[in-house]
Amino acid sequence: QSVLTQPPSVSGAPGQRVTLSCTGSSSNIGAGYDVHWYQHHPGTAPKLLIYGNNNRPSGVPDRFSGSKSGTSASLAITGLQAEDEADYYCQSYDSSLSGSRIFGGGTKLTVL
Amino acid sequence: EVQLVESGGGLVQPGGSLRLSCAASGFTFSDYAMSWVRQAPGKGLEWVSDIHGLSEGTYYADSVKGRFTISRDNSKNTLYLQMNSLRVEDTAVYYCTKEEGHPYSSYHSDYWGQGTLVTVSS
């Protein structure tokens, strides 16, 4: 059971907009700690997609955006493309744990 | 170009030991914290351990504390993970990552290696 909760799966048609959620608590996201997002195509190295809640690394399309409010964060993907089909993970920090860096359980995005 | 290349994975019996290595290039290695993140078969990503640039701080997930030791040799641009008392549940692909961000609570992995598979089985 992950400290950060993500829906196991989300789907959308090409061109659509989808939103992936990441729900935490008062000891992590709600405490103001940053949320980061990663894209992972199985068999390859995960890729940083969003850092510091809403910042895109160089080379990440502006179709990807992040936001945070209260104890939750979201990743929005607009203009869905076939290559967006992947696993997406949120990551943050938890002040109540001795091992403090935490990942969500991941969301499998299917492009219909 | 940043490159991270892991090695040292393989098959080991429960209770055994293994040392993973990660050769880094394309950046000033000692300037950055490094981490190990793993993914068990069919499971999600799990943070394992961090080490600061000059080894002034190390951190571990509860699941590996007391059994794994992270270290680095900045003269060789290499990160290590010594894994002792291995358990079946340690079976996973282990990724070496470069960390960015400050303070520690804002760390995020901006580069990842391709991973090395560790299988713990009798």
Q: Mind sketching the topology for me?
A:
The complex is a heterodimer of chains A (112) and B (122).
Chain A lengths: L8 E4 L5 E6 L12 E5 L6 E4 L13 E6 L2 E6 L8 E8 L7 E3 L3 E5 L1
Parallel strand pairs in A: 1-9
Antiparallel strand pairs in A: 2-6, 3-4, 3-7, 5-6, 7-8, 7-9
Chain B lengths: L2 E5 L2 E3 L5 E8 L8 E6 L5 E7 L6 E3 L7 E6 L4 E6 L8 E9 L7 E5 L3 E5 L2
Parallel strand pairs in B: 2-11
Antiparallel strand pairs in B: 1-3, 3-8, 4-5, 4-9, 5-6, 7-8, 9-10, 9-11
Characteristics of this structure?
heterodimer; A: 112 residues; mainly beta; 6-stranded mixed sheet; 3-stranded antiparallel sheet; 9 strands; B: 122 residues; 7-stranded mixed sheet; 4-stranded antiparallel sheet; 52% strand; globular
The helix/strand series of chain B, from N terminus to C terminus, equals: EEEEEEEEEEE
Based on Cα principal axes, name the global outline of chain B: globular
The low-confidence parts of chain B are none
**Which spans of chain A have pLDDT < 50 for at least 5 consecutive residues?**
none
> What is the distance, rounded to the nearest whole angstrom, between the alpha carbons of the first and last residues of chain B?
40 Å
Order of helices and strands of chain A: EEEEEEEEE
Mean pLDDT of chain A comes to 95
The chain-level structural class of chain A is mainly beta
Profile the largest sheet of chain B. Answer: 7 strands, mixed
Q: Name the structural class of chain B.
A: mainly beta
Q: Give the tally of β-strands of chain B.
A: 11
Distance between the termini of chain A: 28 Å
Beta-strand percentage range of chain B: over 45%
Count up the helices of chain B: 0
Q: What radius of gyration of chain A results from the CA coordinates?
A: 13 Å
Q: Can you count the beta strands of chain A?
A: 9
Greatest contact between two chains: A-B, 29 and 28 residues
